[in-house]
Amino acid sequence: MSVERFVVAPLPLPRSFLALVNRFFFGDWAGLVHNSAAMSSSSSSPNLPTHVARRLEAAQGYLDLGMPDDAWLELEEMVQEEGRTWIQVTLFQITLLIQKDDHDGALARAQSLCAEGTEHPQAYIYRSYCLHALHRTEEARDALLAAPDFMRSMALYHYNLGCYECQLGRLEDARRCLRIAIRMLGSYKIIAKDDPDLLPLMDELDEIARDAALVEIPDREHHLSDLSARLADGSDEERARALSMLVEAGAEHVLVDLMKSKDPAVINIAAQGLWACWMDEAGPEARALMERGTDAMNRGDLDLALSIFEKLAREHEDWPEAVNKVATALYKMHRYRESMAACRKVVQAKPFHFGAWSGLAACAMQVGDWKAARLAAEQMLHLQPHSSAHHSLLLEIERRASDASGSV
């Protein structure tokens, strides 16, 4: 079963949807959907005041340093000083209670949020997780089945439901739920192999993953269309929730469509969502190793970075983002033609990978391959037709190509 990255509980907890949601509310993605000018401290505001968001970031910092008691104290002091709380604070407190194995305390808070009819998916996931941790798995299953309809557009909902069904001995129901989860988000086929809740089905997981390709998900496109509209036109918090759910659903085609928006903020948010989809495709362990490679690349250790990315590309042959990182490292090493070859592999697998098209254009310009540079720039413009930067790049390539042909 999956919950999120902050919780240290008896069950292994791989990266999941809630990791993404908590980034928006507590971490490095908050700036994408955070409009400080619109912030208000009134109880009716769905947004967090800036100073509260900063306190949450401080609490997250304590947690990242392995100091959960200090994180809890930070939140408690803030609530006392403000004389009120926010749902994001309550959700963070629930993660800390689960880390302390206080599942009763966490359950009480989660149930209170669910009783209020919250639209925050974490509350419903936490409620069932705590019930399961308290060996009340039948109740965990029933609670998840009773959750609002919007939860059914999430792969995590079906995955956790499959885990509960499996633990209750309802193996056919568990297989059905897992097929849906994997169909919606392919990385669950990797996560499932390390999940103790699925031990009774461990020998069948490869077959379940193959069968997932044949599953049709009713009303999926309707849900995704609604999320797309919320991301394009919603409030800051609605955009955060919509984006995290689109990423969790692996809805790359929706995010690609949003890249064609005239609104730079929507384009930026959709682009970050696509990067998240691509980074998570091979599961949490592969992503963690990729992040190590990225850290090495950022500090200038290109040989180490390249070796890590090449290892990931070999071990995960169907993971284009590993190849894209290889291309990036090669570019930084001035091995432009090799980088071009890697970029071409990426766009062959994902024709809408704007990062790889950008890399291909940059490499082609370095080696004077103006035909390839023009093609890549045109593809970038096709993906983001309202980008003035892409229009300018295409004009610059045309100019340089003309100069090069004139000098021959």
Short synopsis of the structure:
This protein has 408 residues and is mainly α. The protein has helices at 17-26, 30-33, 50-64, 68-82, 87-99, 103-115, 121-133, 137-145, 155-167, 171-184, 188-191, 205-212, 220-233, 236-248, 252-258, 264-279, 284-298, 302-315, 320-332, 336-349, 354-367, 370-383, 388-406.
Keywords:
single chain; 408 residues; mainly alpha; Serine Threonine Protein Phosphatase 5, Tetratricopeptide repeat; Leucine-rich Repeat Variant; 23 helices
Structure explained in plain terms:
It is a single chain. By secondary structure, the protein is mainly alpha-helical. It folds into 3 domains: 17-212, Serine Threonine Protein Phosphatase 5, Tetratricopeptide repeat (Alpha Horseshoe); 220-279, Alpha Horseshoe (Leucine-rich Repeat Variant); 284-406, Serine Threonine Protein Phosphatase 5, Tetratricopeptide repeat, CATH 1.25.40. It has 23 helices and no strands. The chain has helices at 17-26, 30-33, 50-64, 68-82, 87-99, 103-115, 121-133, 137-145, 155-167, 171-184, 188-191, 205-212, 220-233, 236-248, 252-258, 264-279, 284-298, 302-315, 320-332, 336-349, 354-367, 370-383, 388-406. Helix 13 (220-233) packs antiparallel against helix 14.
Q: Structural class, from secondary structure content?
A: mainly alpha
Say which CATH homologous superfamily of the largest domain is assigned: Tetratricopeptide repeat domain
Number of strands: 0
Label the CATH architecture of the largest domain: Alpha Horseshoe
Largest sheet: none
Shape: globular
Low-confidence stretches: 4-46
